[in-house]
Specification:
43% helix; six-stranded antiparallel beta barrel
Length: 401
């Protein structure tokens, strides 16, 4: 099962902590303590969960490992041989700590298969919704504890109902399976890719800001489109595409539910704006009126540091604080650019701006473009007179993007 690939490697790593030979003077407890100190990972609790299927806080789990260590040494003195970690832990939890009652002996490989089936969607091979919800809550807690970022990607197959209606549910399941395989091939082992429900998917991207999340989402979207185009089967399945929405913690939300809601809002914006695209959630922070200049064909030339040649773009709307432009390529979020605007009235204006939002869309002619929102950087300088005059004399936009 591809979704369990990272979990398997994680389990193997945890078991190596238990089974690898111990250098002189080292114990299982000291080894676990060292991993906790180095990575912050609660390995005491994770290893107990793996071996016993019992859940503990890490402090409580550490006390159990401390008791196990004393008990193992006691068994070795009495039996004149080392019974091994697992036997000592089993005996400690059954006869001393008494947390295990009526335990069942089972081959570890069989136990792992059973455990994986409980958290895996049987159609796609991705994680199921229950496991996803649990992982998202834990990821938010981890981000809070270590002041880190994470992004959430929600994706939904476009017009999926037509596959089931025209070709039957077997064809629909085959399409879902293909999408699940493509998705897991294009995310990292630390990411959590899940079937959220129906034809909707979700990916938790730890330690990932929205710019990088957009790259991952766009890679998945493009590969889904290419795969079903190459498949070339007659009917609806050959036209399968997928839309996506991205939200990030802590910028967009304070908790898991709000993060889901924001990613969902971005997803449905992708649906409304033509499907087969990815949108990033942005909290509206605009405090100044914008002038809609899309119909005027105002050209903007941008040049980033070290970029070399200028890139021609088109202005969509503008205010005294920033500008929304249509660019032929994605502009990295947070990067600064030099802009030259040919405004009338107002004449030519040179400015600097930082990219603060980015969305992909398709034009009516099917061309892929990127709407980049840029915030002007004036520092201590006043607003350029040309821009002031242009904004004063041009009519404001009733609705701006």
């Amino acid at each position: 099962m591809p979704a369990a690939r990272g979990e398997e490697k994680s389990a193997e790593g945890l078991l190596r902590l238990l089974d690898a030979p111990l250098p002189r003077g080292e114990s299982v407890l000291s080894r676990l303590d060292a991993v906790l100190a180095e990575t912050g990972r609660p390995v005491h609790a994770e290893l107990l969960k793996l071996l016993t299927h019992l859940t503990f806080g890490n402090d409580a789990a550490r006390k159990i490992w401390a008791g196990f260590q004393v008990h193992r040494a006691s068994l070795q003195r009495r039996l004149q041989r080392d019974v091994g970690c697992r036997v000592a832990l089993f005996d400690y939890l059954v006869n001393v700590d008494r947390r295990l009652v009526n335990p069942k002996i089972i081959e570890f490989a069989d136990f792992e298969r059973t455990a994986r089936s409980a958290i895996t969607d049987h159609v796609t091979g991705l994680f199921n919704r229950a496991h996803f919800d649990d992982c998202l809550k834990k990821e938010i807690q981890r981000c809070r504890r270590y002041s880190q970022s994470a992004s959430l990607l929600m994706m939904d197959l476009d017009d999926f109902k037509s596959i089931n209606d025209l070709q039957g549910h077997a064809a629909g399941d085959a399409a879902l399976k293909d999408v699940g395989r493509l998705m897991i091939q294009r995310v990292r082992e630390i990411d959590v890719a899940a079937r959220f429900g129906g034809e909707e998917f979700a990916v938790i991207l730890p330690e990932t800001r929205r710019t990088s999340a957009f790259v991952v989402a766009e890679r998945i979207r493009a590969e889904v489109e290419r795969h079903f185009r190459r498949k070339g089967a007659p009917g609806a399945e050959s036209r399968v595409t997928i839309s996506g929405g991205i939200s990030s913690f802590p910028e967009d939300a304070e908790g898991a539910e709000e993060l889901l809601l924001r990613a969902d809002e971005a997803l449905y914006r992708s649906k409304r704006e033509g499907k087969n695209r990815v949108s990033i959630y942005y909290r509206e922070k605009r405090r100044s009126g914008r002038v809609n200049v899309e119909a005027r064909g105002i050209r903007v030339m941008i040049n980033g540091s070290g970029e070399g040649a200028e890139t021609p773009c088109r202005a969509l709307n503008i205010s005294e604080r920033g500008i929304l432009i249509e660019a032929p390529r994605p502009l990295p979020l947070g990067q600064s650019f030099e802009l030259r605007l040919a405004l009338t009235p107002g004449g030519a204006v040179s400015l600097e701006g930082d990219v603060v939002r980015l969305e992909q869309r398709r034009t009516s002619k099917g061309r892929t473009v990127y709407d980049a929102g840029m915030r002007f950087r004036f520092g201590r300088k006043p607003l350029p007179q040309g821009l002031t005059r242009f904004l004063r004399e041009a009519p404001p936009a009733e609705a701006s993007a």
